[in-house]
Amino acid sequence: MSDHNALLAYWPGRERIDECLRTEAETADEALLLAVHEPVTLLRRPEQSGAAVTEASEMDLLRALMRPADDGSAVLVAITGASGVGKSHMVRWLKAQLERHPRRQELVIVTIPKTASLRRVVELILEPLASAEYEALRQDLARAAEAMNPVLAAELLATTLAEELELYGKRLEEEVRARRVGPEFGPRIRLAQHLRTLLRDPDVRDAWLQAALRRIVSASLGGTADPADRQFQPKDLEPPVESAATPMKSAVNEALAFLANANGRYRGTAAEILQELLDPALRTIFRFTDALHQRSLDEIVDDIRQQLLRDGKELVLLIEDLAALSGIQEPLLKIVIAESDHQGVRVRAPIRTVLAVTDGFLAGRKTVLTRAREQWEVPSEGLAESTIVQRLVSLTGRYLNAARWGVAHLREAFKASPQEGTDLYGWVPRFDKTLDAAAADRLDAFGHNRAGHSLFPFNEAAVRSLAAAALKAGDAWTFRPRTFINEVLRKTLLERPLFEDGHFPPPNFHQARLTAELDQELQFRGYGAEETGRLRTALFHWAGHPRSLAAAPVARPVFDAFDLPWPFSAAARPPAGESAPRRPADGGSGITVAPAGPGAPAPVAPAQPPAPIAPVAPPPSAYAQALEKWTPEARMTNDHARLTRRLLTDALNERIDFDDYRLHGQKVEMTWFWLPPANTVSNPTQDFAVRVAEPGEPIPPRVVAGLKALERWNNNNRSWNYAQAENDYASANALLEHLEAQVLAVVLEEAEREAAALASALHRQNLLLGASTKQQPEPNNLKDLLAQADDHPQPETDRLPAKVRTVLEARRKSLGGRELLQERLRHYLGCYQGNRGGKPLAIDTERLKAVLRRDVASRWIRCLNGKVALSQDAQDALERLSPQQVGDLIAAVTAAVEHFQPVIAQSFGEDHQRVAWREAMTQTIDDARELSIWPTSIEEAPLRAVVMRLSDEGTEFAIRRVRKMEPSEASASVNARLIALSSVPLTRMAALAVDVLSMNEFFEALERLVHAQTRSVDDEQALQQRTALIDSLVWED
Predict the structure, then answer these.
(1) May I ask which residue range the UniProt record assigns to the signal sequence (predicted)?
(2) pLDDT in tens, 384-430
(3) Where are the alpha helices (DSSP H) in 907-971?
(4) Which of 195, 275, 841, 1001 has the lowest tally of Cβ within 10 angstroms?
(5) Are 874 and 821 in contact (CB under 8 A)?
(6) Measured between alpha carbons, how far is 601 from 720 in angstroms, rounded to an integer?
């Protein structure tokens, strides 16, 4: 048999796991319960507030239960603790002790399991009668339970709970008014009102509340393996998704909205209220009094105790979880506090009760607390990690030993053991199977618990690591055996088929996640993907998650047992004190080693060379610890996220010379880096982002190791000159190489995109200025885009309509920041001498071609902040000329052109001759001055300047072009429309129009003046001169 197969005897099969690894004490055989029992230290908490809490043993608990009852009081032992901590187990342990107690013959013991139905609870209480009367009551009880329809019972439960809620709300209102409770109970009053609304609404009941009601009724009637089935849960009050499409009454919607308040916490409070009222509601439904011939349960128990008094016996009630027995809680509490004496005379047998309840259940039951005098708490919180781990290690060994034997063998051993005395554990056999030396060494490497039980397939490190995932929240441990058995022992042992096939432990077992450095070190070993995954699991759980592979914290046979390669350095040895497996106190290992053969000499262990001393690494920084906890769902703190971005920014700026990529003066910026999850503060929201890790995917070890290395580099004055810096350099380089490629990809793409936007804006400025008539810039011709282009001076006058002046201002802003836009374009296309050079020595023509071929995005958002910063004017111009807004500019310019064109075209004829026109206009001005007919509102010099401008050769050409201007089709391209509108620049047209208006004003004023004077002049010659002057007041002959 191979060593691997030999170890299978120590790994229980599925049948033994199912029968021995039970989490509910009441379902376990007594022999199994004692075989796996782990002694615990209890906390003895007095009923008086402020009294000291002391530690106590299990035997102290037993003595408290069996204290003398000569004073006639009811003996009540209350065991409290969190769910899953082992309260029911303690009750069963007490029962096992009572079975061997010297006074056993005087005791009538009744155990009430928490999974029993209400009918079964009553039957168990009535059993001591053992008479014809008992049998009649039992039969009547059975008939009553069988006759109950679960569906009708659920409906009745809803109605009864609604009535109880009304009374509950009124009681609370009275308590608040009387100031016996504070205003913080106000939400509970409203919750009671809203819950009553929901329970009384038939649509709500039928749609989703009915399921919870039937579950509780069925569990109460028939019992349940899960006590939670008998309790209201917050999720019971969450309406199903499909109900959103169903119209509800306003009161129902208001109730649901209120329950959803406080991030859903009100649902938890509402479930607590319903659970509090469930006990009286179920009593109303099941009507035990009717089934018991109109007698209450406590009256019948009183009869039982009177009979036991006559028989010289005492009644012992062992209640495993009173909180799970809604419907009979109040009668049970009355029973357990009923004293045996009345007015100094004993009238009924003494009663001793063990009451296991969940934390907080007794808080409002002062009478019970007073009778109990104290609470015996099974602690789950506030324990030291070492204490919890040692208890779990011991528990693991005990359960494994029991499962290796099986219940049948344990039961036989238990029956054969002496029944006297209080030692309940000496009979438990230690599993021992003969193994050869190699297999024994492998088994021994996994260690033992204090009782000598082998921990295989666990070791102490695995128990600690696997338990941490289930029992540790932050830095705080809780001791919950039920959770440990379910989540760790059962789930691990059920992987036995994988061990049989040589594939245990599997990859990703129980959230195995190595530190980034260790993960990278493991990958450098060159194992296959499957083997690497299994090694990750073994290193994380069974090897205690070491910092490196330089030193081995675990014995090599552990890895041999799992058919895994030894990943540690060849010379690595387990550290002293840890390689030797823990031996039981009696010196035995629990393993029998087969002899090598007759006469064979005893094996001599080879001399071991001294283990190399691994360098002691400093403790991980807070940042390094945060990186290890970083997941796609758990974001880093703001400070750590900021540090991450700063480290990457500084390192990449030292690494990348953007001048090599024709990005003069560009630097990596902190705002570029996107960190998972998406809600990390300061994550970039636009498409331009450098993803340090992909969303929704595990953080790569390369990223974590690289960031840790960069932190150490930064802390060492950005130098790689420190111990083990070569490893850090490799880790940082692996991260930065990946990010550098991503940075260059997004930056070069963004540079080309932005350069295309700049080129488009500069070309559109050229079109507005009339400096170009081409729809697109010429390839390989950067001169036009970078050329200086002056606009015609914009006339400053209020003669133009306000709308036209607004258009001229918008056009002026569209032409703003031209020099900075040009310089920014050079920044993306130019080759400079060094980082400080200010003059481009060459142009990247390939990028220029790509830029000019590129489609421009509809919205221009600048993401790069290079050496050339854009002014507000330049940014405004970019936005106005962007595809998204340029249409508004075209519409405005079109309206202005339509305003100017008729004014200019109608003032000059098609055959306009500028020289003749200038002479005619000059003569008119001279005549007006000679005749002393000059409008006082007109200045002569500016008017003569207007005549000279309008008769300029360039003006004549502009006038002809204005007359020929026609708007392009609306379907034409943006640039084609700009060309059509700017054949004469808008400011040139505005200046022409203003001059035309000035001439028109002169003509109109002069004509009015001449007409006024003509009526008062008698001289014929003067009249002829004025008539001739009027005839000359026309634009063209």
Answers:
(1) none
(2) 899 999 999 999 999 999 999 999 999 998 888 876 655 667 889 99
(3) 914-930, 940-950, 953-964
(4) 841
(5) yes
(6) 56
Q: How far apart are CA 427 and CA 424, in angstroms?
A: 7
Side chain identity, residue 568: F
* Fold adopted by 27-146+289-377: Rossmann fold (3.40.50)
How do beta strands 314-319 and 351-358 pair? parallel
- In the structure encoding, which two tokens stand for residue 633, read together? 């769902």
**DSSP letter assigned to residue 477:** E
* pLDDT tens-digit readout, 140-161: 777 777 777 788 888 888 899 9
What's the token pair of residue 168?
Answer: 């509950």
* CA-to-CA dists, residue 645 to 621, 640, 649, 706, 1029, angstroms: 17, 9, 6, 13, 82
**pLDDT at residue 609 tops 50:** no
Strands 374-377 and 345-346: unpaired
Give the model's pLDDT for residue 610: 47
Q: 50 pLDDT band (50/70/90 cuts)?
A: low
For residue 782, name the pLDDT band (cuts at 50, 70, 90).
confident
In whole angstroms, what is the distance from residue 823 CA to residue 867 CA? 10
pLDDT tens sequence across 564-594? 999 997 654 454 444 333 444 444 444 444 5
Summarised one tens digit per residue, pLDDT across range 687-714 is: 789 999 999 898 988 899 999 999 999 9
How many whole angstroms separate alpha carbon 816 and alpha carbon 597? 100
**CA 56 – CA 376 distance, rounded (Å):** 8
pLDDT confidence of residue 829: 82
Contact 757, 882 (CB under 8 A): yes
Query: Nearest to residue 278, comparing CAs of 210, 324, 337, 227?
Result: 324
Q: How far apart are CA 959 and CA 952, in angstroms?
A: 11
Q: Which residues have CB under 8 Å from 1024's CB, separation 6+?
A: none
Neighbours of 1034 (CB within 10 A): 10
Q: Report the SS3 class of residue 868.
A: coil
- The answer to whether the CB of 931 falls within 8 A of the CB of 1026 is yes
Pairing of strands 351-358, 75-81: parallel
CA distance 114 to 98: 20
Mean pLDDT, range 966-985, rounded to an integer? 86
Structure tokens that stand for 836 in this block: 């400080």
Instruction: Single out the residue of 958, 952, 962 nearest to residue 899, CA to CA.
Output: 962
Q: 126, 113, 69: which is closest to 352 by C-alpha? A: 69
Q: How far apart are CA 988 and CA 458, in angstroms?
A: 91
β-strand partners of 55: 43
> Furthest-apart CA pair in the chain: how many Å?
165
The domain limits of the chain are 4-13+384-593, 27-146+289-377, 148-286, 749-886, 900-1031
pLDDT bucket at 488, cuts 50 / 70 / 90: very high
* Percentage with pLDDT > 90 across the chain: 25
SS3 letters for 231-272?
CCCHHHHCCCHHHHHCCCCHHHHHHHHHHCCHHHHHHHHHHH
pLDDT of 859: 62
Measured on CA atoms in the order 879, 883, 888, 894, is the torsion positive or negative?
positive
Q: Which DSSP symbol is given to 490?
A: I
Q: Which of 768, 759, 870, 875 is nearest to 811 (CA)?
A: 768
Mean pLDDT score of the chain: 83
Q: Residue 1035's CB: how many other CB atoms inside 10 A?
A: 17
What one-character DSSP code corresponds to residue 357?
A: E
CA distance 552 to 519: 15
Do the Cβ atoms of 433 and 10 come closer than 8 Å?
A: yes
**Residue of 489, 486, 467, 490 whose CA lies nearest to 478:** 467
